[in-house]
Every structure is written in C-alpha cells, then in structure tokens.
Amino acid sequence: MTTKLFGERVQRREDLRLITGQGRYVDDLGHDALAAAFVRSPHAHARIRDIDVSAALDVDGLVAVYTWEDLPERVRDPLPLLIPHPALTHGRTAYPLARDIVRHVGEPVVMVVARDRYLAEDAAALIEVEYEFLKPVVGIEEAAQGAHLVHEDVPGNVGAHLVQEVPSAAGAGASEAIDAAPHTLAFRLDFERSASMPLEGRGVYARWDPDDQSLRVYSSTQTSTSVRMAIASKLGLPLPSVEVIAPDVGGGFGVKIVHPWPEEVLVPWAAMLLGQEVKWTEDRREHFISSAHERAQVQHVRVGFDDRGRVLGLDVTILHDHGAYTPYGIIVPIITATQLLGPYRVGAYRVEFSSIYTNTVQVTPYRGAGRPQGVFCMERTMDRIAAHLGLDRTEVRAANFIQPGDFPYDQGLIFQDGRPLIYDSGDYPESLRMLKELIGWDGFAELKARAAAEGRRIGLGLGCYVEGTGVGPYEGGHVQVTSDGRVHVSTGLTSQGQGHETVFAQIAATELGVPLEKVSVVTGDTRRFGYAVGTFASRAAVMSGNAIALACRKVRDKALRIAAEALEADPRDLEIEDGLVRVVGNPGASIPLATVAVLSNPLRYAFDEETKRATQFSGVSSMDRPPVAEGEEPGLEGRDYYSPIRSTFASGMHAAIVETDPDTAEIHILRYAVVHDCGRLINPMIVEGQIHGGVAQGVGGALYERMVYDGHGQLLNASFMDFLMPYATEVPFIETAHLETPSPLNPLGIKGAGEAGVIPVSAVIASAVEDAEGITIARMPISPSELHELRGLAAP
Amino acid sequence: MSEALHEITLTVNGVVREATVPGRRLLSDCLRRELGLTGTHVGCEHGVCGCCTVLLDGEPVRSCLTFAVSVDGHEITTVEGLSGPGGTLSPVQRAFSECHALQCGFCTPGFLCTATALLRDNPSPTDDEVIEGISGNLCRCTGYQNIVKAVHRAAELMGDEA
C-alpha cells in the first residue's frame, strides 16, 4: 500500500526556517543595497505647484532624487488598469509619482535614494512641495452627489455602473415580484472600511546585473509572474532578462495582489539607472496611507417574501467606495453583487452598483473581497424576514436553501471571472443541521432565559455564505525527479503563509508514491516557473494543487513506462511505493525511482556511479529506435496546467453567542462555531488554521477595525495604536466542523479555503448582538459606544 | 555633514558583538543591519505589534523602541539564539511547529521570545495567563488559537524535560 499523505494533518515543511529566524523576507535580503524612501502627499486633493529639493542635496549619503518629470517614457505613464470591464467606463489609475495632482493622502510625489533608510528619510524630510489645495471628496454619499470631483474628467465621480437582473421563473422582474409579494421590507445597510494589514508591509529589492544586462527583483507580492511582465514592459526589457521572486512573504490577504505598485516599477528602474542594488521597505504609516483598503459600501435593500419567508423578489442598490483609483477594476463590487445570493434560491433578483471615486486610498480586494458585504446584506435580510414573520431564523434560511439535488445550480449571473455563476456542489441543509448541533441552537432559548434571570444579556446569531473559489484562468505545475531520487515541484503562484510547500508536497508525494521528505516545493519564483496568475480568491490549492497532481500523473506514467521496460513487465502491473517502482504482488521485482530518473535521460557522459547506467555502452538502450524516442523528452519530468471551466463553490455557516454588558455596552463573544465545506481536505490542520485566521480578521472587522477619514481626507487612525486589530484577548476559541462535498470540476475534488473564515463574521455578530439586545443592527462594525447610542435611540 | 558614531558592545545570543552606530539607530535595525540577524522583524515601528520582541537581559522588550546605544554592555537574545547547542529546537520552537502556531511566520520570532520568557517565569500557566502573556503581540494569520495551544504544549514539553 502506498502511503496516502493527501488528507493527513502533516506538519508544515515551512516551519523550521521560520521558527529559527532563518526566513527570507524581502527586507532580510540585500544587506548592502541603497535604500529608497518616498515623499508622500500630506493632502487628500491638491495641485502640485513646485517641488524644491535643494535642501536635501546636502544630506550625507544622498544618491538620487526623482520626481515625475525625471521619469522616462513608459515608466512615467499611469500604472496599468489590471482588469478592464465594459461597465468601468471611467477607470483611472495613478502615475507612479504624482503628476500635477495628488488625489489621496499618501500618494507618492518624490523618490529619494540614499545609502541607508535613515538618510533617505532625512533627505525626504527636507524636500519642500508647494501645493494648491483642491476640495477633497470624502464620504461615499457626498461623493455620489458629485458636487466636487476627484478626477476632473469623471462626472459625478462614477467610475462604473452595473446592473444585473435575473427574472423569476414566471418571468417577473424583481420590482414586480416584490410588489406582488405578500410581505415587503425596505432598509439601508452600511459597512465600513478595513484593510488587509499584513504584518509585513510591501517591499521591493532590485539587482541589475550590468554584465549580462539582466534584472532580478524580489517583491513581497502575491503575483511574481505578473509583476515580472509589468516590469519588463515598463522598463522595455526582454522578458527573459527579468526575473521576479516572491521570497517569504509576511502575509498578503489581498493587498499584495495589486501590481505593479509604484515602487515595483521605480525601484527596479532606479537600480538599473544607478547600476546599484536598491531596496524599499514599506513602513507601517506608509502601508496605512498608500496601500489599499476595502469593504466600504452603502446598500439599499428591498425584498418581497411569502408567509414562510421565501424570497420572491430582491432588489439591492449598492454604493461602493473605490477610493481615488481603480487599478483592480470593479472586481470587489462585482463579487458583492453576485455572491450576495449565498446558498439561496431567490425568486427574482436585481442588483445595481455604482462604484464611486473619493479622495482616499484605493480600494482593492482584502480577504473575502466584497463577500463580507454581500453576505452581510443577505443575512441581515434573512434575519429581518424572520423577525417580521416571527419565525426562527434558521427556518427562514432553510426555506430558501438550494437543495442538494439542485446542483449544478445556475444563479443566472455573470461572476468575477466573466463566466456564469453556476454552483458545482454543496449540501446546505446538512451544513445548517451540523451548525445547529455544534452551537446548540435548539437549546439556546433556555440558556438565554437563564442568563436573563441573572441580569445578563446573551444573543445567538448565524450567517451562511457561498464562496466562489479557484477562479481561472489557469495555473501550472512542474515536477522533476532527479537521479538522486528527489522530487522537485514548482508552481508559479506565490505563498504568504498558507502552507503551500506542505500541501503541494502532500499532493506530489501521494501521486508519485514517494516519501514526503523527498519532495521540495518552490512557489512564486519565475526562474522556476514562468506562467502563472497569482494567489488570491482562495485559488491556490484548487489551481496549483490540481496542476501539480496532473503533472505528477504525467511523470508517473513515464516512470512506469521506463520501469516496465527495465523490469520486463507490463506498466499496468506496476505500482510506486516509498520511491520504489515494483511489480504488484512481486516485491522482488523493483527499481528505485531514482534509477528510473537516470534511465530517462540517455547520457554520453557519466557524472557519478549511478549515472553510468544511462551511458551509451551500458547496453540498456534498444538499437531499434533513437535513444530519445519520438514524442519523448529526456528526463523524468512533467509539466501540466489546470484551467477550469469555471469557479468551484465552497460554502460554510457560522454561529456565535455574544454577551453584551448592560452598563458598558461591551460586546464579548462567548462561543464561535464554524461549519466549513471546501470539498476534499488536503490537510485539515492547515484548513483549520486558515479558518481561525479568517474568523479573527472577521472579528476585527465586526467589532474593532475601521479606517477613520475626516472631512479633509486625513486618515485619523493610521497606526496600530488607533486601528484596532484584535490581539489574543479579543479572538474567541473557534469550534470547527468539516463537511466534505467534493467538487466535480477538478481531479482532486477540492475547493478553496483561504478566505472563508472572514466572510460571514460581521453578519454573524450583527445577528447575535441584535438577538441579545432586541435592537436592529444595520451598520458594522459596531463599537460599545455605538451600541450604547443605539440603546438610547431605541429607548422609549 | 556626517553623524556622530558610537562604539557599542552587546552580548547577542551568547556571543560578544561590537557595532559602530549612530545614536538614533534602533536596536531592531542594529540587530538586522549591523549584526546581520534578520530573524527579528519590524512590523510597525511604534511598539504595538511585538514582531521585534527580543530578550534584553532575559526580559522581553520592543527592539523597535530601544536605541542600540542604550543597551551597550547588555545581553540580548533573539530568535536565532533560542535553539540549543547544535541547533536543537527549544520546546517553545518545537511546540509552535507541532501546533501549527504560525502561518506567514513574520510575527513568530516575537511570539517565540515572548513565550520563552513567559514560561521561564511561569512554567505552568493557565489559559488566561497564556492569553494575557501573549496579548502584547499581534498576529494577522492564525487567530491565536494555535499559539495559545502551542504555549501550553511548550509548557508540557519543558515539564517532560525538567
């Protein structure tokens, strides 16, 4: 029997270097590199009158100062609009250094290069930029009124406007279906800004090699292949002369999928120009004011339903704040609009969003990427329907569930990958049953009454979601078995702590029948694999996992062919176990995979004892055909790609019990339960870790985190002192149960798990606080002072 | 104009190290740049996240809020110094790996140093004591559940070895 590592709680291969201080993050590299620092706009909206660098020129160790005017063609052009969309009629991106106008606090204006970062910041502080103030546009509804403009040529500040409508089975539009429904409700919901906030900020380190005219760039990115193509294009270099490596990356959560950031263009450009290594490491304040945020939306909901709570018509209008620029297109509001429907079948659905410019940091995906807002909208709607009808909240949800027999289920919308939103598999009734059991739903009323008798307020909430994961277009995998028996796996997408080195090794070891210790995995290094999309949308395991499995199957087939010849057996009678190819039922007849690798590469020259077997006088090669037969390649290696027809849909349901303090209005999470379905699990330990981390970020978003802009466009809480990320004291113990409904779309039957944990948390906490307090919750996050205010408003 | 430089001597991970630094050089930067010990990470530069935590004469401190010149003559332990002779992992290091208490690993050196000091002072902490003990360190990946588990596991491993 071959040891099956797929599905096991295998300890991580990444850990040893990370727990001994031997990780290699960008700032750990390039000890002698020059350091870059940036002068950034202190104003949200202003015209640059003059830049005076003269005072900086005396700083010891200064090497160079650049403004937009110093940049050559292409480098000076606006950054790319990564994901164009027909509805994005007024997409705008930033210049790498501001040209004439700054549109948010933190926009880079001047680049300084010096001997070290201290000196670069000294020089940056002495550069004087004269600004003419323009009216800042802050606040999504103010911006939507269009009284003042973020971009002079974008009327009404509207970057994009998109409507999707799915009529009912009877052909009624949403509005008609709602009007005809026995019950209707209309309400408004608000969701505030947060941000990915990885503990390592962004960073870029570039080495230009003048001898062979090549560039190597290390970037803390979620997509090294695409950064590479952008740099080659911007700098006019042949693609093969540029390599980009994502080394150890200290968290991404979405912000590092955006590219090329200004620094990813400017740092390599400066390194080339200066002929010296240059490095830039983002500091925390820079991260707050110049990297991306997410989440902020205002939603207007109208819903019609029957006596059982079945949704007959749903109409949602969304105002989405995308900040000052739209480099990532309108992916976030598209996801909100489409994933809003969750596990439900609704009668008729109409969704409309306007994506609006404001003079704030740009908005691009943060873990969950529009889903937390959509799920908040739908789950608040379900709770309101239940309250209106006096029904149990789980009953209303169950009445609307898509049933296990309904798959594949077409929601009739176009998803973020431009493909139909068709759910592949799932079992929502079972998921809800498991959740109710895990949290003790049916016994809660008694618990609540007992608590009330003691003067305590507790509440129970839940939230359900469906998450499209594993979006295309593709990923690839390369697998090579070398003559020492080691297996080298590479894939182009990157890692930011998800444990890819471990799970991809589990897949390869299982597919090839080799011990895990023999397998090594490289991700995000364009020297090893040049074709990739990147790590986002919970896609890495689905995309690269399947690509690596397919590549392994090619290698396995080849190994069996070669071994069959050597063993004079039928390949169909062979198996590989523990790195040994052998005839099933005849343990004596075997050949090590290492030897197969030797034989796969006909040699003229032996380089060690083992490889003598493959040389031309060794007698192994048949005289009847060329040493490398037609259609074959030397070497025991394989490359394959996985490109899905469309996304696969993971799902989950969370429940929480909260306690609210009657006096201080503090909110404590007493219990938190998760039922999670990501298809087949590769490594349950790692999946649970992903869920824990996601829920923690969700708790932050529900109770603590927000980006507070004042009317001038100043971010008032741009530090960890004031932007409150949860510590261990704020995150509850998370109880987890897994359901596995395999995806029929890919060979491994897996779905993504990376973002899941964060998605429903605001909806769950809102539901629980509402249950505890009997006050309608329509805005998240909620702080104790806000709850206190709501109590005041609700009091007679 | 050049800055005035200062000669300092630190005992880092048991080895006497000398460095020449300007007065404003942070201990975190001195460790990473002058001494080449890049295991100590900088996550916020204002003393909140705890990524840069090292042990100063055995006590956890934020190296990003400490000037290198101010610890001249003192002993520092960084994550690189937690392993035993021959690279044997410490119980805290082993427990973190065993319990999947790290993902991206950026905050991990700070947690390892913090937990090492915590367990030295309190070899069998309660759940609340563990949570309190690590509540000065931010982690954006793990949700802390497995870090808490790892600290308890480390206590167990240390108990077994004692």
Task: Report what the structure shows.
The complex is a heterodimer of chains A (796) and B (162). Chain A is 27% helix and 25% strand. A seven-stranded mixed sheet of chain A has the order 3-5-1-12-9-10-11, with helices on both faces. Chain A has a six-stranded mixed sheet with strand order 7-15-14-13-8-29, with helices on both faces. In chain A, β10, α5 and β11 (242-245) form a beta-alpha-beta unit. Chain A is an alpha+beta fold. Chain B has 162 residues and is of the alpha+beta class. Chain B contains five helices and five strands; from the N terminus they run ββαβββαααα. Chain B has helices at 27-34, 91-98, 108-121, 127-133, 145-161; strands at residues 5-12, 15-22, 53-56, 59-62, 75-77. In chain B, α2 (91-98) packs across α5 (145-161).
Largest sheet: spatial strand order of chain A: 3-5-1-12-9-10-11
Number of DSSP strand runs of chain A: 29
Rg calculated over all Cα atoms of chain B: 16 Å
Query: Structural class from helices and strands of chain B?
Result: alpha+beta
- Low-pLDDT runs of 5+ residues of chain A are none
Overall body shape of chain B: globular
Q: N-to-C terminal Cα separation of chain B, in Å?
A: 56 Å
| Average pLDDT, all residues of chain B | 97
Number of helices of chain A: 18
Oligomerization category of the chains in this entry: heterodimer
Number of helical segments with 4 or more residues of chain B: 5
Helix-residue proportion of chain A: 25-40%
Strand content of chain A: 15-25%
- The assigned structural class of chain A equals alpha+beta
The proportion of residues in beta strands of chain B is 15-25%
Compute the number of strand runs of chain B: 5
Biggest sheet descriptor of chain B: 5 strands, mixed
User: What string gives the helices and strands of chain B in order?
Assistant: EEHEEEHHHH
